[in-house]
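We now fix the convention by which a protein and its fold are recorded. The integers have meaning only within a learned vocabulary of local backbone shapes. A record is reproduced here so that you can trace the correspondence yourselves:
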Amino acid sequence: MISLSSSSLSSLAQDAKAWPFAEARLLIDRLKKMAVADDYEVIFETGYGPSGLPHIGTFGEVVRTSMVRRAFEILTGKSTRLICFSDDMDGLRKVPDNVPNKDLLADHLGKPLTQVPDPFGTHDSFGAHNNARLCAFLDSFGFEYEFYSATACYQSGQFDAALQRILEKYDSIINVVLPTLGDERKATYSPFLPICKRTGQVLQVPITDVDPAQGKITYTDPDTHETVITSVAKGQVKLQWKCDWAMRWFALGVDYEMSGKDLSESVKLSSKITNIMGGTPPAGFSYELFLDQNGEKISKSRGNGLSVDEWLTYGTAESLSLFMYNQPKRAKRLYFDVVPKMVDEYYSHLAAYATQEDIAQIDNPVWHIHKGDVSATHIPVSFSLLLNLAGVCQAETAEVIWGYLKQYAADVSPDTHPELATLVDYAVTYYQDRVRPNKHYRNPSEDEVNHLKALASALADLASDAEAEDIQSAVFAVGKAAGYEPLRNWFSCLYQVLLGQDEGPRMGSFIKLYGMDAMQELISQAVNGTLAGDAE
């Protein structure tokens, strides 16, 4: 664990190469150009559309922003805040598929989410329900943030001065927005969306007049065709979202906000609007979106992604944070097989951390995952080994795996190694849900039978307490003597015949864990054809 003074750590961090520090330095450059005061409080923001439940992208944006925030605080010592902003004044566009009492919502289409009844019956509105779910979601991961509601900001008057600025710069803003729209949309576009006093709906109607002096706009009611004059203050209007984004940056003084690559053009437009208003757009970067295992974009409607709950069914929160930390500007595949890899990679980084120099420690992902407060934890076996063990012994309970673990290391138990116990539980669940349904052993060929017998003999010649490296050498030697070229074909044979899968662990480590006698018995079953027969 780093035990340095704040000034020493700040000095050390100046040379850190980790991307959160690189982002923090870009933010520092922005603040220098703005010539802010020494006591200036720096605002980070993440945004959320509360028409649905929090998802893995929500987690990714908040955890990455929090990492940059921490790096910035180390580099500067400045006070910061993280605002999680909910656009809960957005109009309900359609009834979601995943809610009860759909008929309750159907009569409220077009109204702000905070004016739509809660179909779950737990809160005053659908927006309030989803906001509560968002906060509970963020709280469960220990994020430090301040929740802001668009409805509260608009209705309290917090946005009034910024809305007045939009009125004053109306023509200039229109002129930068219209070139980005199609002909049909150009004919009706206005930054302002009036809240209809008659129906309560968010109206997307042409604005026929703007009056900055009075702080008012004029439009025609689409149903009664009456001329309506309304103030832009105290929640009587909301803004189209790109203009709303810019207004929010301006009103809240946002200094940093990242967003998905799909919003890159929106960032450019909102930045132009912020400049027109007389503000400075926030720093931030455009992160890449997730892909599925086939390299295709993840779509909620197609269901080809992976939810936070699904990840946490099979892996730790730290492994999910590591996935988000790794190369945020590169598209990454997000599917079930990634989870075990990230669990093992996390513990690999954690093991390396204890022996690293200070500068290497703050470039280690675990430093950012744990905000610099890293405690060493020893996991005697990898998660991938636990998964393969669960597969071979067809583990229905954690006790089955613990039986092998105690032979491997007598001093381990759920009490002495609670994190290992957690991984064992994950391994059993992963095996039952993800491995067992797809497991398929094949019978060995006549030549492979001879090679497997040779392996059994080689293992029998080793000491019962042989080290993993010695076992690995024996496996290699048998494969080479059998003439496998390339040698990986030998290991493919072992994985397919003995483990019932196409890929597998380092065999020396696995056999050490599984046990020499147990491995020889497994080979005997494979040679006799009972292993594949049992699987069928």
User: Anything to note?
Assistant: The first helix runs from residue 6 to 13. Residues 495 and 501 are 6 Å apart (CA to CA).
